[in-house]
Amino acid sequence: MTSTEASQDPEVFLTQVDDALEEVVEKINEFLEASETLFNTAIKGAQAHIMGGIPGAIVGGIKGLLTGGIPGAIQGQIEGYIDGLLQEFNEGTTEIHVQWEEAEAAIRQSIGSLAGDPLMMSAISSAYRDAAEVLGNQGNEIISANKYVAARWSGDAYIAYESTADLQLKALSATLDTMLNAAQLMDDHQEALLNYWSGQLKNLVDLTVAITSEIAELGDAGNWLSGGVGPLIKAFASTIGGAATIVDTAVTHWTGLNIGKAGDWDGLQAYIPEAGLENNVWPEFTHVDRSKINGPWQKS
Q1: Longest Cα pair distance anywhere in the chain, in angstroms?
Q2: Which residues contact 197 (CB under 8 A, 6 or more apart)?
Q3: Could you tell me which of 197, 193, 207, 184 has the C-alpha nearest to residue 268?
Q4: How many CB atoms lie within 10 A of CB 128?
Q5: Which of 66-70, 137-141, 194-198 is predicted least confidently?
Q6: Which among 71, 266, 283 is positioned nearest to 178, based on CA atoms?
Q7: Which of 6, 119, 130, 254 has CB atoms 3.0–4.6 Å from 197's, for a disulfide?
């Protein structure tokens, strides 16, 4: 049986989905084969029931129906009854095939429409963290250099330098924090996607298990004499409802992405100017500071 732990590789995951769907199809075929066995048993039972209710030489004539047939109303009665059961069974199995084709299409659409690449998400997350580490190292060097400047210089030129340097360090810190937060969001998206994939694989496995359960609960041949294929269709209809669970799961996941995760990215974008990178523009020397910093520097 297919594992319910999704692969991080999207191509492998789609193969897992194909395998899970094949297992469902195998169980559907097993379901129909078991139903056909019950149907054949019911037909034989019907024949025996009819022949058992007719005394004497007529019974022998009815038995001859299976080899050469007998003329008249009795033959028509038996053939009509059996043909009715056969038609009902064929219509029932056709309905099951149609239901499954529709369900399978809905399953593939719901899963395939929410694609992604967890491996690529992980790579992007790592790249964000690597960039944040570089910025952090550069920031530490600037802080260290500023201490030396502060210890040796003073006056208007130093004040102009210090003012702009502080703004740029704040902007650097905002950029660094944003990259770390972006890395975490990528991790969250990766986890959410893998959880969604694994959940959908579990839904498919549950569907296979449910059909297996329905096979065990098909009943005996005697029920088919009175109920026909009605119980068959009803049993499969309740099981195929598992496909609706898969579609509902896709809708829930999609809603979460658009409301929750999308909002997280919007919030991250809004955080940058608040944290120090105003208007998403790197702070430069103001007109006042530029005129001062080009003036004479005074030693402390």
Answers
A1: 132
A2: 6, 13, 111
A3: 184
A4: 20
A5: 66-70
A6: 266
A7: 6
- pLDDT computed for residue 157 by the predictor: 87
Q: Which helix (H) or strand (E) holds 139?
A: helix 118-152
Domains of the chain, by residue range, sit at 10-299
Mean of pLDDT values over 247-261: 67
Determine the Cα–Cα distance for residues 249 and 21; give it in Å rounded to an integer: 17
d(Cα 153, Cα 298) in Å, to the nearest integer?
6
222 close to 45: Cβ distance less than 8 angstroms: yes
Above 80 in pLDDT, residue 224?
no
| 170: number of Cβ within 10 Å | 15
Mean pLDDT over each residue of the chain, to the nearest integer: 75
Helix or strand run (H / E) with residue 153: strand 153-154
pLDDT at 263: 61
Summarize the confidence of residues 106-120 as an average pLDDT. Answer: 78
CA angle 139, 145, 149 (to 5 degrees): 140
Give the tens place of pLDDT for each residue, 79-88. Answer: 676 677 677 7
Phi then psi for residue 125, to 5 deg, are -60, -45
Q: Using the structure block, give the residue that is written with the tokens 């004479």.
A: 296
Helix (H) or strand (E) holding 33: helix 10-52
Task: Name the 3-class secondary structure at 4.
Answer: coil
| Reported pTM | 0.67
